[in-house]
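Narrative of activities, Objective 1.

The group set out to show that a structural description can be obtained from nothing but a protein's sequence at a throughput compatible with the screening campaign. Below is one input-output pair from the validation batch, recorded exactly as produced.
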Amino acid sequence: MSFSSRAKAELCQARPDRKCCAVAESYGVLLYCNTFSANEIRVITASPEFASRLPKLFRRAFGVSFDRLPPEGAEGKRTLSITDADKLSAIFDAFGADRGATLSHHINFGVIEEECCRASFIRGAFLAGGSVTDPEKRYHLELATSHRSVSREAYSILLDMGFSPKETERAGNSLLYFKQADAIADFFTTIGASGTAMDIMTAKVEKEMRNTVTRQINCDSHNADKTVAAAQEQMNAIRRIAKDYGLDALPEPLKDAALLRIANPEASLADLATLSYPPVSKSCLSHRLKKLLTYTPEED
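Output recorded for this entry:
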């Protein structure tokens, strides 16, 4: 089961107890479903939980049943539809629309005045026309409808609810979408899927932890590479001095630094400073090792 399917399954667990919220959720479903016209309502879904929820939701909201239901035990995409004229009229009447005169859909804001009803409306919209990507891969939630005016008005509803979705068009559909984990988690919390919201935030935290560990490993690796390269350069300089002049030609402080590096060829500068006797600062030891890189006896 995909992450989006699990989210819809969780949303379908809520009982549509209040009629106003059942009407609002049904409204969201209708405006974001496959077909909502004067002649037919058709909802196509791959979610068995949503397909099971719809008949109860419509009975609670409108007192009507679907004319077509998916067969028992159906798999894949399931289709539910209403073509009966009286049922269609009852549904249009519930939203204050004239079935015979409606040319394009608009949201009747009077149906979703209450905060609970706005959340129910958005829940219905997501169940019918929404999807969310697995947060382990990326953060993306969208609501898609073929009604451009509905998408613009839903945008206003989401703004009133404290959200800031983005808008775009794709394949003849108008889309509202989110790409931030926090916004998507808040969205699901608001419409009744707190478990899904928790999964998103958990995935975000784990991803950030992995990124932090990776950055630290890369940083440590880079620093280790720099330490090794610097130590190798110093060892080469010490070998050159030993071959050309002998280490005894070095001033005592430089000789001590050279012997310390020979004894600890992979140690960091900080570690060498700690091992020095008598103790010296890191900057002092760094200065001595740098002098070895270009040392000639004339420097004495």
